[in-house]
């Protein structure tokens, strides 16, 4: 008897349908929303979701708390800008070149930083980003120094990643996020995903069972650096300006880590959920109360972070997973037959 082909699970089909509907809804946002401010907030949410997804590969799955991803953000931004201004190269090509430069830079940086663990690794990654910022501050002739430079405004030039309306930038940011999620999804289901989780739980134990931890961390660092550099190119084109303090800002590294922690590290959608909560709240409060109550958005931002870290350190998705696990246990207990008690003599 010939066995019938395996059918996909109902849960998997439902998940794909949900992702498809979410993609359609995200693509329709610029067609429905006409407010320039709302589109700007949406672009920031998509951008920092993408940066969070890139950071989450390293900091979430492997639990290597890097706070130096601004180094690759800045390298991507400067590479594409230098190619555009000096050689008239399209930022679409410069974006890929910036990613390659970031990957090349991550090899020596990773070689040095991966010799350390815990807080020492984190401090080392911060130092690398700050050193790069100081280097570009001094290179006045090569990279415009502390003053920075503006990006030539070409009007509506899609081939040069410039658009008259913000909707164009929205779709570019949405495409970047889709790429980041697709890469993470593929890694989750590959041998690298299993190795990353093993390293994140206990690196020594993972090496004891044959996992080549340095090689796996080096590979995932390359991917994370490449994706982060793409975000740097996009951000520079979006604001039409670049300088070392913007490109290598420590806030970028902090934001990438925080949105992942709030949403749930080591999960596919955690950085997206964390960014939606934090960026939307911050932007709306700044718009509504920023003029009357100075710093209110930062205060609420900090309160959200403290609440999540203190009460739900696994993040929002971690809490959702706990609830689903409890519900599943209760369902099993409800369906189980009652235990028969031995009769008393």
Automatic annotation (TrEMBL):
It is found in: Cell membrane. It is a multi-pass membrane protein. One of its GO terms (molecular function) is branched-chain amino acid transmembrane transporter activity. Keywords: Cell membrane, Membrane, Transmembrane, Transmembrane helix. GO terms for cellular component: plasma membrane. The chain crosses the membrane at residues 13-34, 41-61, 67-85, 92-112, 118-137, 168-187, 219-242, 254-278, 298-320. This is Branched-chain amino acid ABC transporter permease. It comes from Methylobacterium mesophilicum SR1.6/6.
């Amino acid at each position: 008897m010939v066995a019938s082909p395996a059918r996909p699970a109902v849960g998997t089909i439902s998940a794909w349908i949900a992702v498809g509907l979410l993609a359609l809804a995200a693509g329709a946002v610029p067609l429905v929303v006409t407010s320039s401010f709302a589109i700007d907030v949406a672009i920031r949410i998509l951008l920092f979701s993408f940066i969070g997804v890139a950071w989450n590969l390293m900091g979430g799955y492997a639990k290597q708390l890097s706070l130096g991803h601004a180094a690759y953000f800045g390298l991507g931004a400067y590479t594409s800008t230098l190619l555009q201004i000096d050689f008239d190269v399209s930022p679409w090509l410069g974006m890929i070149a910036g990613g390659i430069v970031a990957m090349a830079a991550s090899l020596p940086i990773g070689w040095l930083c991966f010799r350390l663990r815990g807080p020492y690794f984190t401090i080392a990654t911060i130092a690398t980003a700050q050193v790069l910022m100081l280097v570009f501050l001094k290179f006045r002739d090569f990279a415009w120094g502390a003053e920075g430079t503006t990006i030539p405004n070409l009007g509506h030039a899609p081939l040069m990643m410039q658009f008259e309306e913000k909707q164009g930038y929205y779709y570019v940011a949405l495409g970047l996020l889709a790429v980041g999620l697709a890469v993470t999804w593929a890694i989750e289901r590959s041998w690298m995903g299993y190795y990353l989780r093993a390293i994140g739980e206990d690196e020594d134990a993972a090496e004891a069972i044959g996992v080549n931890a340095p090689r796996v961390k080096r590979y995932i660092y390359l991917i994370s650096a490449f994706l982060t550099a793409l975000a740097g190119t996009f951000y520079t084109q979006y604001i039409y300006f670049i300088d070392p303090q913007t490109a290598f800002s420590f806030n970028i590294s902090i934001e990438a880590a925080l949105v992942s922690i709030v949403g749930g590290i080591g999960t596919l959608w955690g950085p997206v959920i964390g960014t939606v909560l934090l960026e939307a709240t911050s932007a709306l409060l700044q718009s509504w109360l920023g003029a009357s109550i100075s710093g209110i958005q930062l205060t609420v931002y900090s309160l959200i972070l403290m609440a999540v870290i203190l009460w739900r350190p696994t993040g929002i998705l971690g809490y959702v997973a706990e609830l689903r696990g409890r519900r599943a246990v209760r369902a099993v207990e409800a369906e189980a037959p009652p235990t028969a008690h031995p009769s008393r003599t």
